[in-house]
Each structure stands twice: as C-alpha cells, then as structure tokens.
Specification:
The structure holds two protein chains of two kinds. Chain A is an all-alpha fold. Chain A has helices spanning about 1-15, 40-55, 60-70, 70-80. Chain A has one domain (about 1-80): ACP-like (Non-ribosomal Peptide Synthetase Peptidyl Carrier Protein, Chain A, Orthogonal Bundle), CATH 1.10.1200.10. In chain B, helix 2 crosses helix 4 and helix 3 crosses helix 4 (about 65-90). Chain B has two domains: about 15-90, no CATH class; about 95-280, no CATH class.
C-alpha cells in the first residue's frame, strides 16, 4: 500500500503541475482539499481523470468522490480495491 | 460599485409573468414605450449599474460628453430590447436568424462530439439554445440566483430544446456533473465572463485594461481536452439575430502545462469577445464594475 501511496503522490504532482512539491512533502493523511494541499474543485476533476487514465476507475458519484479524495491514504485504499489497470 | 455579479434577471415574478402572457398575443415592439420608461427609471435608481455603463463608454471606449451620453442611452435601450426578445421567445415567438460560422457549426452537426461552448454576457446569450439547432443535448451551468419563475421558464424551455441545467453548487460538486455530461458525449455550456463570489480569477486585458475572468471555466475546458467554441447571439434589429460561432480550441494547445493552456484559451476567448464588442459595442450587458471586481 505504501508503494501505491508514493505512486499516487507522484501522479498528483504530475496531474496538477505541482512542480514546486516533492513526494516526501505530501503527507498521506493530510487533507487534499482546504487546509491541506489546498486543492479546488477543478483539481478534483483532474484527479478523477487521472484515476480513469491510469487505473481504469470511473468516479461519478459525488459522495463517493468526496470520501475517496479526502487524502492520499483514502485514495490509495480505493484504487487498490477498484483498479482495473 | 458592485464587486460581483448578483446573478439575477431584473423584474419581479409578476412583471415577468405579465410579459410572458402579453407576448403570446402582442409583438414586443408594442412594449417599447413602456420599456423606455422602465429604462429611465432604471438609470435613475440603479447607481452602480449607471456608473458601470458610464465607465465602459468613457474609460474603455473613450467617448466623451454628448457622444458618451448617447451611447450610454443606447446601451440601456439595447438591453431593454434584448430582455423583451428573451421573454417573447419564452412566450413562443420566433426570430429570424443568420449564422456566421455556419460551416464550422455544420461540421459539429454532422459529426456530433462532446464539446464546450463558452458564452459571454454580450448580446442575447439566453437565446443560444433556443435559436440554434444543437448537435446533441446541452448541459448548461447556471447560477440559480434568479427568481423562481425565470428558472422555471428557463427549465421548461430548455427541456423542450434538449437543454438541461446544472446548478452551481457551493461545494464545487457541479464540476463532476459537467464532467459526466461531457463523458456521456453531450455539450457543455458555461459562461466565461462572470466571476462569482469566492471563485479564483485569471487576469487578461479586455479593451485595454486588465480584467478578471473565472479561472475554473478555462481550467475545466483545458482539463477535458475537447473542442471549445464561443457563440454569440447578436441583435440586428426587430426579430432579427446573427449567431456567431467561433472555435477557441480544437482540444489541443501549443502550451505544455494546463495553467499556460488555460491562459492560451482565455486569450482566444477575449480576442473573440473584443471582435463582438467592436461590431456591437451597445450589446455589452455586463452592467456591473467588470474591470474592478
């Protein structure tokens, strides 16, 4: 799981052009939105598209998306369970 | 001056209902004398709007004295006519239209594909889906700050023409709805010139002065990597409109990262906006302090 979390952090940096950040700077339990990484709704769209592209996951339910995109750990757990790629 | 747009159509529910009833039987032109009186009252009582329109003519279009006052008045008259036409269409009246950019539009009619249409409050934006045949159903992002009746009429009319509303949600949940509409192959219609409270802005010069535009609109379009068009419904005269269709992007960009791509897209959007404003300077209907938001 830890390896997947590292991979997801790298994907987040790539998808959102967070060039000034490194994988080590992202805390797996820190919120992705709001006071954590400070991402917004368009960033969530980019992450949803990233999940589709790399893991074959189509996230369309808003409530589930909110839970899944809470932090890197919840994201990794969901990817681990639902990935088709 | 107003710092953000309130997102409301003017008039009470009963005034709007009255117009819908009247236009079922009467041509809008018969309402012009009442509209002139309404415009005078509007100019006198709405200081913020008055200052914004005056700023547009004196500071951005560099008109002075009597010329500025004349154009200022025409802006309101054109706005009044556009509003009356809107209610006339909602009441079931038809307009004569011509499409500029017909070849481009026909290519999308022949080969429907997911696409984004970014509109502006120039001309009669509300009539786009009503007057133009769309290749697929359209999902329009709408700020539901309007009166119940306007929303109800809009929805009724929209549904008859294969148009659906995606309401703006405070938590940003509408972004997923918009993504789903495009993923399902539909058309997404969004506004590119309205900055709602709390939304992030991208700056770009418009008519020679830096103005804020909603960052989310352009970032969303870039992220989706689908063709992006701009459409303008411009009033030519009584019951006559020209619809301008312009391609802003075919879904590819010369810039490499999304931020620069969004700036590239906004640059093209503003270019088309200025083209429309040069042709129809009196149909600029952002009656609030657009440059100072």
């Amino acid at each position: 799981m830890e390896q997947l979390e590292q991979e997801l952090k790298a994907r987040i940096i790539e998808a959102l052009n967070l060039e000034e950040m490194t994988v080590e700077q992202i805390d797996s339990d820190a919120p992705l939105f709001g006071e954590g990484l400070g991402l917004d709704s368009i960033d969530s769209l980019e992450l949803i598209m990233m999940l589709d592209k790399y893991y074959g996951i189509k996230l369309t339910d808003k409530t589930i998306a909110k839970q899944v995109l809470a932090n890197v750990r919840t994201l990794a757990e969901y990817v681990n369970e639902h990935r088709t790629k | 001056m107003n710092k953000t747009w309130s997102g409301k159509t003017g008039g009470s529910k009963w005034q709007q209902l009255f117009l819908l009833r009247v236009f079922k039987h009467v041509d809008p032109v018969w309402m012009y004398p009442i509209m002139w009186l309404w415009v005078i009252g509007y100019i006198i009582t709405r200081r913020n709007e008055r200052q914004a329109v005056w700023y547009y003519w004196t500071q951005r279009r560099h008109e002075t004295g009597v010329h500025a006052a004349y154009h200022f008045w025409l802006s309101y008259i054109n706005f009044g006519k556009a509003v009356l036409d809107r209610f006339a269409c909602w009441a079931g009246r038809s307009m004569n239209i011509r499409i500029d950019g017909e070849e481009l539009w026909n290519s999308y009619l022949v080969h429907p594909q997911p696409l984004i249409i970014i509109g502006s409050h120039i001309g009669n934006i509300e009539l786009t889906g009503y007057l133009v045949q769309m290749p697929k159903d359209v999902y329009a992002l709408v700020y539901l700050g309007d009166t119940e009746l306007v929303v109800e009429q809009r929805e009724k009319l929209f549904n008859q023409h294969g148009l659906h509303i995606i309401p703006v949600q405070r938590d940003g949940g509408h972004v997923l709805d918009m993504h789903k509409a495009l993923s399902d192959g539909y058309i997404l219609s969004i506004l590119g010139d309205r900055l709602l409270l709390g939304s992030r802005a991208m700056m770009m010069p418009l008519l020679g002065e830096e103005a804020p535009f909603p960052e989310g609109t352009y970032r969303m379009a870039v992220a989706e990597q689908v063709p992006v068009l701009s459409m303008y419904v411009m009033r030519e005269g009584h019951n006559r409109y020209t619809i301008y269709v312009r391609q802003l992007s075919d879904g590819t960009y010369t810039a490499t990262n999304h931020k620069q791509q969004a700036e590239e897209l906004l640059g093209r959007y503003v270019e088309v906006m200025e083209e429309m404003l040069d042709r129809y300077p009196h149909q600029w209907f952002n009656f609030y302090s657009f440059w100072q938001q």
